[in-house]
Amino acid sequence: MSAPALATAVAWAGAAVGLWLTGLRHRVGTVLAFSAGVLLGVVAFGLLPELSEANGWPASLLLFAAGYGLLLALNRFAYPVCPTCAHDHEHEGCASELHGFGVPLVSAAAIHSFLDGWSIVSVQQAAPLGLRIAVPLAITLHKLPEGIALGGVLRAAVASRGKALLWSGVAEGATLAGAALGIALAPRLGFAWTGYPLGITAGWLFYLGYHAVHEEWKRRGAVPALTSTLAGVAGAAAAQRGAEALLR
Fold it and tell me: How many Cα neighbours within 13 Å face the side chain of 139?
């Protein structure tokens, strides 16, 4: 549980920053684009190649599409699953009062966090060493700007900082719930089951990465967004290949 706990702690710290420094949102663009690049790099150089070797490309791409489609549907028909990737509300300074937005946002963020925890545990149980390092790293990096955005938006949606902090903690704490359920089910389902959530993980990581890059492109322009993103992709590839080489 150490990796999910670290990711949760980073998200909680980010939420606290978002609550007290809502104007900081525009300054974390570099971190957001870099973390998005790490997510895309994990998918391109880690998850999809490994899954294709184990399950074949047709099954891997089907699971990938299921994961992408899940978050796409939630984002389009419910509420934005990831505050850092949201595009249909005013999040830059969180100056507008978002009455009625708190409960749907907390629910969507909790689903996202639950999947984060589930995915980290799935990777730790059966994936190659490179993925056991790269996936938790990618998710943890994404948790920082995600937490800042969540805290800032909730501050505009609820009556007090205390309530916003509480609900931020509940939403991001679902990471631990997802991890705990994954650990509890592993002995009953065996290790073969991990291929399914990992395939879905590839889809939703790609969704989060792509949409985060798209939003930063619109906010800061192509060159700054892509520079940070490509650095993240390269970092993910290096982390995976380096970890695998060390223990060969």
Answer: 30
Determine the Cα–Cα distance for residues 27 and 173; give it in Å rounded to an integer.
25
pLDDT per position as a tens digit, 187-207: 676 555 666 777 887 887 888
Q: Quote the domain boundaries for residue 41.
A: 2-246
Distance CA 96, CA 94 (A): 6
Task: Read off the pLDDT of residues 207-240 as tens digits, 9 standing for 90 and up.
Answer: 888 888 887 888 888 898 899 889 888 877 776 6
Are the beta carbons of 212 and 33 closer than 8 angstroms?
A: yes
Tell me which residue has tokens 């650990």. 183
The number of domains in the chain is: 1
- Residue 54: burial class (beta carbons within 10 Å; 0-12, 13-18, 19+): middle
pTM for this model (two decimals): 0.70
